[in-house]
Each structure stands twice: as structure tokens, then as C-alpha cells.
């Protein structure tokens, strides 16, 4: 909508200039318009501005913003440390009162200071302390040294493995979802994508557990009772048998499914019929 309007005005103006017969009055008007264009002073100043998601910026050839160069071209975005889009400028234009009227972006020209810029990062996040177990999905997860997942260690945690976590980073404001990354301790962060999360506090899990020990699918697996914070084996569950589950709990850094009463099974010795 904005793009069509700008180009429509330019084309209309071009049509008038091409067909109108110049007169003394029109020439005088043109001269007056040219001389009353806002005067600005260029200053060398660098910094970064934040953009709203998917914003485009009108670019101009001059700091007075009278010569349109390209309409709503996407400026090359330099990724900010927290992953939000931003652009770097190297000059500013100021008016007689000292107010910034335009920013200069190397290789892209000038853009109005009234554009959809933020001078500080509008997207914030917090680190929340929480203990639990993170189970890696079908693909290995890269380990990073920062919660924003920008500094890879070059190491992975293998698919299907379980790890204790101690905190997590929330999503940026305005994004859908709860957690963005999880800290496995010692600033070892992995993406929340594909993880199954089991906080140390018990949580409901109305499901069906199918006995299927990965290393030996024909083996029975242990059934446990929770006694004084420790799981004690009390029997076996046959291979391929199915059991209704009611809730999950982390004990000793491992996830257990409750089968009713004080009967538990280790989550890694089978699969759930319905993912959640």
C-alpha cells in the first residue's frame, strides 16, 4: 500500500511536468520550492538501529530526502547478539535545531529518521531458574556457550539422550512459545526445538506407555516403587505390554512415568503412544 502510493505520486508528478507548459508563475513556484528545502548538516556518527520484523525502508540519494533511490528496499540486516534484526549506520543528518532527521547506511543511502526504527532493542528476554531433565529429539542438538545460541562449541549432545538442565531462556517478546534455549550447566546451552522437557516438579501425563527397551526390544523392563526419594525395583513389565500413565516425575536426574499408585517405569525403557 505504501509503495504504490509513493510511486503513484512520483508518476503523477512526472506526468504533470511532461505535459504542462512552463509559465513565469510556475517557474517562480519551482524556484521557491527548491530554495525552501530543509537544510541539514551531515555528521559522522556510527551506531545500530533495530527494525521491526519484516520492515522495509525507503532509501534516498541525499540527506535532504528529496531524491528517492529505491522504495522500501530491505536494508541488509546485521544480526544482533540476541538474534533480532538490526542495521548499522555511519552518518546522521541533523536540522537547524539539532534534531536527527536521517540516517546513512553504507551502500544503501539515506533513510528518514521517522522510519520504523528503534534506538534500543525492543525485544527483551529473561533467564529463568528451573531444574529438570531435557530429552533430545530425533536429531543431535548443538551445544552453545550463550543463551542466544550464537556461539557454537562445535560439540553436540546425541539424539535421544537425556540431560539435566538448570535454567532456560524465554522467547523474545512477541514470539510464540515459552522457552528458547536450555542450560545444561556451565553455560552449555541447547535449542529448545525438538526437546521434551520434564521439570523436577511432577506433571500430569495421561497417556499409554509401551514397553520397548531400545537396546533389547524383547526384554522385560523393571517396575519401581518410589521410597524415600529413591526408585526401588519391585518387578518386571513384559516386552510390548502397554500401561496407562498418569503423571511424570524426575528422580535422580531420570524421568519416570507413573502407572498408578506407587508404580513407576523408567521413561527411556519404552515409548509413549501419544506424543505431547
In short:
The protein is mostly beta strands and 276 residues long.
What does this 3D model show about the protein?
With 276 residues, the protein is mainly beta. It folds into three domains: 27-118, Roll (SH3 type barrels); 127-199, SH3 type barrels, CATH 2.30.30; 203-272, SH3 type barrels (Roll). The protein contains two helices and 22 strands. It has helices at residues 2-19, 24-35; strands spanning 41-51, 57-60, 68-73, 78-79, 85-94, 100-105, 109-112, 117-118, 127-135, 141-144, 152-157, 162-170, 179-183, 189-191, 196-199, 203-211, 221-227, 230-237, 242-251, 254-258, 264-266, 270-272. Strands 1, 4, 5, 6, 7 and 8 form a six-stranded antiparallel β-sheet that branches. Strands 14-13-12-9-15 form a five-stranded antiparallel β-sheet, with no helix packed on it. A hairpin with a 5-residue loop joins strand 5 and strand 6. It is rod-shaped. It starts with a helix and ends with a strand. The relative contact order is 0.10. Mean pLDDT is 78; it is low at 1-36 and 77-82.
